[in-house]
Specification:
5-stranded mixed sheet; binds 8-OXO-2'-deoxyguanosine-5'-triphosphate; 4 helices; Nucleoside Triphosphate Pyrophosphohydrolase; alpha+beta; single chain; 3-stranded antiparallel sheet
């Protein structure tokens, strides 16, 4: 769509480890009613003047109370991102939790950091899904537009 009128959304595929990931975090939306109960990548809308990566770090801090170290983009065919419903597009990045204390990204956050993730007001639940069981990951009731992204993520991690 010309003129940059698309809503730009960013989402994080938060992994338990950068070097040898075994789990990815999914979050269950609390609102709006039409999306309540469906699963998604934590994130939200990019604000004017913000880069996608800055927006994603901000959103995850606000929604989950965690700091992220962003890794790679789960690339869509369209460089503007994956198509969502309406005219929205979403760019998705893999990430790990960062301790935030030294400003150093952690390559393996470990159980203590994983346990730190809390579903805030925006989410009913947050769940770590096993990457070794792609069927179980895909069987979750994701927002329908997310399914091709989840499949691409699983493929990306399988071939890394
Ligand atoms: N965060 C997120 N949003 C998604 C995903 N898939 C998908 O279709 N969406 C849609 C749902 C929403 O219509 C839109 C994101 O809006 P949002 O409500 O999360 O954004 P926000 O936190 O900035 O919220 P707000 O201030 O506008 O209320 O993108 C996904 O995996 N993650």
């Amino acid at each position: 769509m010309p003129g940059g009128t698309r809503t730009r959304v960013v989402g994080a595929a938060i992994l338990d480890s950068a070097s040898a990931p075994t789990r990815v975090l999914a979050a269950q939306r609390a609102y709006p009613e039409s999306l309540r109960g469906l699963w998604e990548f934590p994130g939200g809308k990019q604000e004017p003047g913000e880069t996608p990566r800055d927006a994603l770090v901000r959103e995850c801090r606000e929604e989950l109370g965690v700091d992220l170290a962003l890794l790679d983009e789960v690339e869509a065919a369209d460089p503007e991102g994956w198509p969502l419903s309406g005219t929205a597009v979403m760019r998705v990045f893999t990430a790990v939790l960062s301790s935030g204390s030294q400003g150093e990204p952690s390559t393996d956050p470990g159980p203590a950091l994983e346990a730190r993730v809390r579903a805030g007001d925006d989410h009913l639940a947050a769940r770590w899904l096993p990457l070794a069981d792609p069927g179980a990951v895909l069987a979750l009731p994701w927002i329908p537009a997310d399914l091709p992204i989840v499949a691409a993520l699983l493929e990306l991690l399988r071939t890394e």
